[in-house]
Amino acid sequence: MEDNAAAPEGLDRRAELSEFLRTRRARLQPQDVGLTAYGRQRRVPGLRREELAQLAGVSVAYYTRLEQGNGRNVSAEVLDSIARALRLSSAEHAHLTHLAKPTAHKKRRGAPAQQLRPAVQQLLDAMDTVPAYVGGRRSDILGWNRMATAVFGDWGALPREERNWARLVFLDPATRELFADTWDQKASDTVSFLRMDAGCYPNDPRLSALVGELSVKSETFRRLWAAHDVREKSHGVKRLRHPLVGELTLSYETLRLADDSEQFLVTYHAEPGTPSAESLRLLASWTADAPVPRDDRVS
Fold this sequence. Notes:
The chain is of the alpha+beta class. About 45% of the residues lie in helices and about 15% in strands. It contains 13 helices and five strands. It has helices at about 15-25, 50-55, 60-65, 75-85, 90-100, 120-125, 145-150, 165-170, 175-180, 185-200, 205-215, 220-225, 275-285, and strands at about 130-135, 140-145, 235-240, 245-255, 260-270. The chain has a five-stranded antiparallel β-sheet with strand order 2-1-5-4-3. Helix 11 (about 205-215) crosses helix 12. The relative contact order is 0.15.
C-alpha cells in the first residue's frame, strides 16, 4: 500500500538545506565560537558566511554553494566539520546529513503506509495501568491502549487522518487544554519532531500536505516551522490538566521498535506515592470495564 500519489508535491530539499544552515548560523555570535567581534555594525545576525567557513576549514565559495542548497558531492567529513562549527546537536547533525545527502529511498514520492504489528498492539493492551501509544512518521498515532484513551482522549473516535499529534496540538481545543501549562513546549517539540521527518522524507506528499494545512490554520505553527529547529523524541516530564482528575505530572520514555525504527513506543508513568500516581490508579479503575478500543489502526 502506498501513500496517495495525487497529494501535493513534497518539500523543496534544497530550500530546506539552505534555510536550515542559515538559521543555525544566525544563532551563533562570534564570541560564542572564539572569534573577535569588532565594533562595526554587522549586517546579518550571527556569524558571517566567511567566519563559518573559516571555522569549518572550507572555502567561502564552497560553503556558500552549500548554504544555497547545493549539497551535491559534499563529503561526510565536510558535513562533520560544518556541524562542529555550527555546534549542532546529534539530531541537527543527522538532519543536516539527510538534507545534504539524500539516499535513494528518500527520493520516492511516498513511503509505504505504516502498519502496527498485532503483537505490538497486544503488548499495548497488556500494559493496563500505563498510558502508552505507538507513533510513526508525520507524528501519526498508530496504536494505543485503554489508559492512553483515559489520559489523552478517545483517538479511536477520530477519523484516521486526524490521529496525528501535530493536528491535535495545533487544531484541537481539548488537546490544547490538556497541555495548558506546557502547551508552548509541546508545540515546539511537535514541530521539531516533524522537521526531522521532513529531512528523511522531503518528497512525502502527505507530510507536505500536513505542513501546508497547519501553516494555513495556525500562526504559531508557521512561526515554529520557520525556525527550522529539529529534535528527536526521547524522555522527559509532562504536566497535564486532566478534565477528571486535575493536574498530572507524568514521566515519559520513548523506545524505538527493533524492526521499524520509524515506529516508537511511548509510555507514561507517575512517580510512586505521588498524587499523580493515585490519579492514574483512579483512571485505571474507572476504565477497567471499558472495552479495549479497536479499529484498523493503520496509518
